[in-house]
Design brief:
single chain; 180 residues; mainly alpha; 7 helices; 74% helix
């Protein structure tokens, strides 16, 4: 029994989305609230978000073959999704690096605040990039249905698939045609 989701990319991609967005909020807070663990918390969230973005890019590359043989419109959308994912990874890594530097500069409060501003700005840019990446990924799945049939039918025999479709939509049956 395989416990890993197949395809893996949709399961992995949600972690960096949440971590980068929360990290951006913490990074903005760290600009104004330098006491306690707020700067370190922002650095940890953004660092984990960057690691998650790397994992999402890697799983996207390995799962990308699921949608390679689609129309030119889907291919263009997939290319744009991949480009935005790479931007997200780069921006998240820069934001994480700046947040770590800001957290380590506790003995130099003015420099720490300046670097915290840079971290917050980069985290904001990474958050925008997350949105752009997710928008294109959502369009691939919800408008074009890429990867859906392969994921939904993995390990299901052909006869079972029709029975599942009929059970899910008894009024139309598996073919989507009315039986009246």
């Amino acid at each position: 029994m395989n416990l890993m989701p197949d395809p893996l990319h949709p399961a992995v991609v949600h972690f960096p989305v949440v971590l980068i967005l929360l990290g951006a909020a913490a990074a903005v807070l760290a600009v104004f609230w330098r006491k306690g663990y707020v700067p370190a918390f922002a650095a940890v969230l953004l660092g984990l978000g960057a690691l998650g973005a790397w994992a999402a890019v890697q799983t996207g590359k390995s799962d990308g073959g699921l949608v390679e043989s689609q129309s030119s419109q889907v291919t263009a959308l997939l290319d744009a999704h991949e480009e935005w994912a790479e931007r997200t990874l780069t921006l998240a890594a820069i934001a994480a690096f700046a947040a770590v530097a800001s957290a380590l500069l506790v003995r130099f409060p003015r420099a720490a605040r300046g670097v915290a501003v840079a971290a917050a700005l980069m985290a904001g840019a990474a958050s925008w990039s997350v949105y752009e990446t997710g928008h294109r990924g959502g369009a691939l799945v919800f408008q074009h249905g890429t990867g859906v049939a392969g994921a939904a039918t993995a390990g299901v025999a052909d006869g079972q698939l029709e029975a599942i479709a009929t059970a899910a939509h008894p009024e139309t049956g598996a073919g989507g045609q009315d039986h009246d």
